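Exercise 7. Given the components listed, write out the predicted structure of the assembled complex. Treat all entries as one system.
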Amino acid sequence: MIKISAKNVDVFYGKKQALFNINLDIEENQVTALIGPSGCGKSTFLRCLNRMNDVIDICKVQGEIVINDFNINDKGCDVVRLREKIGMVFQKPNPFPKTLYENISYGPTIHGMAQSKQEMDEIVETSLKKAALWEEVKDRLHEPGTGLSGGQQQRLCIARAISVQPEVILMDEPCSALDPIATAQIEELIDELKKEHTIIIVTHSMAQAARVSQRTGFFHLGELIEHGSTDKIFKNPDNTKTQDYITGRFG
Amino acid sequence: MLGFTSYYFGRKKAYTIQSTNKRLTALPQFYGYYLAIWCAIPAFIIYSLWAIFEPTIVKLLILSDYANQGYLDDELNLIYEKTKALSRGQFTGEVTSLIQTSSEKYLNLRSIAQSSKVVIVLCIIIASVAYAYKRISSNNRTREPVEKFFNAVLFTASLAAILTTVGIVFSLIFQTIDFFKVIPLFDFVFGTHWYPAKAFVRDSSEALDPTMYSDTFGAVPIFAGTFFIAFIAMCVAIPIGLMSGIYLAEYASYKVRQYAKPLIEILAGIPTVVYGFFAALTVGPFLKDIGTAMGLEVSAESALAAGGVMGIMIIPFISSLSDDVITSVPQSLRDGSYAMGATKSETIKKVIFPAALPGIVGSILLGVSRAIGETMIVVMASGLAANLTLNPLESTSTITAQIVVILIGDQAFGDPKTQAAFALGMSLFIVTLCLNIVALRVVKKYREKYE
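Answer.
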């Protein structure tokens, strides 16, 4: 089933066009990987999906992005509700300078999801369990989140993102600041999360894309060159540019 | 000028050597600097020594004529002063032959000194430049001495700054100790009556009688006044400064920020004396009028006027410092919060403000230490009578204002009244020093957190 459908999306930074006429459908409960060389626009596209580009003054997005039959670029779209439904994990782990507990409870608090302390405790516990962090941190929930290791911080950020039960999780190179062991843990986690969430992951590592994703889109110079099932893109791409990139001839 | 010329000569010679295919040990400029330093420094040292000792030597030479004629030292000095005045054509009294001759001699000596000074300095320049010029060759090292010279210049500059501070602290300490020999520390710190004018009444021929000073130098009212006015100032400055800082950092578009920030910083550039008469002549009477209309007793010189205007003066500090601190909160934290669906004000309240809090506290403490040290506004707008009051509509006085009162006009050193100013200065110094240290600590701690 199609969860997100982007139609004719153009993005401009000031006068410079960063994305050209992107058309891409994202399947529900699957992992979609976006690959391509640096500066190709894959992160920009990801940020379109929860309107994070609004934060950048000079950035302008055109075209339709339909999620649940609703165009999020419409004027009537409530960005707060949208971002509740579409969570995001960033390249560098960015826990708030608060305790672990406060980091997780931040989202549910601003969306008024817990009526009592008990409910909040439950949300925190389930989120941390889903992010495979509970066992490591259950005894120090009231210590600062910035004291964790890089990999733990990133899992904390994932727990923070899933605390509001989003339908979609966007991941912007979530492992690029982590060592191989922490990366493996996160990849395992992504596989687990796709049962309940639709995941879109931007990655530099083609090996990672091949490992975690079911579908892959290849971006180059602001254009979506090719997309399809990960198997097909990696084994038998239609486009020679994709072929060249996959085999490491450029990029 | 000669320095510049020798720079070019030095560089030129270096280029010449270079063009004959020999490798230099340093860039040609260094040879230029080397020569310029040799040209300027010895000559400058000799010139300054000369300028310092010339008057003394001239005086000795002139007065040596009269040394054995039974004049007293004071009379000799008088003769010398008269001689100088006559030589400059400023002498108004009766011209005696004695002064006439010595004046001619004085002029004569001065002109000899003048020309010999020029000759000697020129000789030294030529000698040292010649020495240095001869030493310029392909394997002579010039980079090290030049670098050492710049190092020494910079070191001297910083040393001068530090030594001045130390000097100030010591002068404060000694005078303060003298003061507390006469006035017990207890009376100063806990006395509630400040009336230094009482000390004026004393005839200087009378012996010092410590008992007559009891109840004169009780610093409580002025400390209270200082903190009270600073408190009023911070009540104005903290909310306005903080909110404008948050607006500039988070809400203002690039264009607004570009114009608004310098405009707010103009406030910081206004001389405090201007704030002072604004407070005394505009705000003070205005408050008095309003108060009278409401049936309140308002003094034209009120703590409220002084504190309020002082607050306006401090706004730019707090706003621009907190703006800097808020801007330096990493963008990733904002992104994280927005991505959770938080609105801008939620993000500011729950993420950015707590993250920036240590820095903001630091900026507020710096503002407080400025408020406590501020003088001009208080002197002009808050009156000089040291009342012990918490009514913002009455006049009070501060430490700084009292120091001004005490030291304006004639004062005798060694007098408890003058030394009281030093004691006040010392306490003020300690208070602001502590505040600054705490503020810098807090700001530093904040920086470490994000690096």
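Discussion: Chain B is about 75% helix and 0% strand. Chain B has two domains: 2-141, 213-449.
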